[in-house]
Each structure stands twice: as structure tokens, then as C-alpha cells.
Amino acid sequence: MGLIAEYDTQLTQLLDTLQAVPTMTVRHDEIYFTPDRSVKWIFWACGEQQSEFEAALDTDPTVEQYRVTAEIPHQRLYSVTLVGSPEDFTLSVFNELDIQILDATHSYDGTTVRVRCPSRETLSKLRETIEAKYGKFVVRRLYREETSDMSRYSVTEPQREALLCALEHGHFEVPRRSDLRTVASKLGISDQALSSRLRRGTATLLRDTLAQKTTNEE
């Protein structure tokens, strides 16, 4: 069973934007390193002041560039390249410790994150890293995840949605019925974001099934 932790912190990324438009919130979707060592953040901007939010992004010192990849009433899906290199972010620590971000919500007065940790030791290491970087790490809730057919596979909801959509549209068939771009358009995300979700989701499923079976047999 995994250890689920919910904690509050204060990120510097997008802080100027969210303080300029305090009625808006940002809902985390995906964050990853690109081959050219950029940091790409995919998120939903939620609220009615979308134009003001985008204007604030234009002058935000933590944003290198951005584009809107999908839009529904009062929500836009952004693909943002953040200023800085991988060493400037704590994402590598999540990867090293096998800590999975389940969801995160950002607003002008702080960030709330829910993660799945392998152990209390890894959570303690995460706390040390976050406190050193951002100065705040306050645990809201801490509980053991119940074992069930749904919870034993630790793919995130966006990864699950991407895998099932790709399967449904024949992306894994030979020959393929749908290419990456077609599946991405069905989900309203970029090709790169879909590729990342499929890659990470597949790796997670392999760890949870074949790799786990091999470990148990040993």
C-alpha cells in the first residue's frame, strides 16, 4: 500500500500571475523535462478572468513561453515552458524518490499538493527538499492507501485517460489506426504531452505488473 500525503507549500512559479489575478486557480496536469533540458508544465487555468490571466502570463518572470492547447467554458489548458533548467526545480527529487503527484492546486495564497509516497522516509526527504527550496511544507493529511483493484495500479488519471484513449483508437495496433496527433486531438492536448503520458503510464503499469511479479518470485 502507498502512503498518501496532502501538503501545503508556496511555489514561486506563476506566483506573480496568480497574485495579479487572485480569482484564478491553476490545476496541475503534467510536468516533465524535455530533451533540450527545458521544463514543461501542463495545467488548467480555472476561472472567469482568462484574458487577465493570459496578460499576466506575458510578464511573469517564471514563464519563458506558453500556448493554449484546449479550452472549455471558464477553463483553458496551457502548455508552459518555465524559465530555468532541471536543476532549478524539485521535479527530479520526485522522480528519484518514486513519489507520484496525484493532483495539485495553485492559487495566489499557496499550493496544495497530494502525492503518493513509497514510505515515510521518502516523504521526509521530500519535506527537506521542499522546505529548503520554498521554505514551507505543512502536512494536511497523511494516510495509507487502501488496497483495491483500482488502487494497485498507480497511474495518474491523466495517464489512464491517455492510455485508454490510445487503446480505443487503435494507436497500439499494427498497423496503427490512429497516430499520436489524432489521439492527442481527441484529448485536447499536445502531441508532446500525450507522448509523455503514454510513456510514463506504460512504465508505471510495467512496474506495477511485470516488474512486481518478478520481484515477488525472487
UniProtKB/TrEMBL annotation:
Superkingdom to which the source organism belongs: Archaea
Pfam families linked: BAT, HTH_10
Keyword tags: Transcription, Transcription regulation
Keyword Transcription regulation among record annotations: yes
Positions of the Bacterioopsin transcriptional activator GAF and HTH associated domain: 13-150
Residue ranges constituting the HTH bat-type domain according to the UniProt record: 156-206
PANTHER family attached to this UniProt entry: DIMETHYL SULFOXIDE REDUCTASE TRANSCRIPTIONAL ACTIVATOR
Name listed for the protein in its UniProt record: Bacterio-opsin activator HTH domain-containing protein
Organism: Halogranum salarium B-1
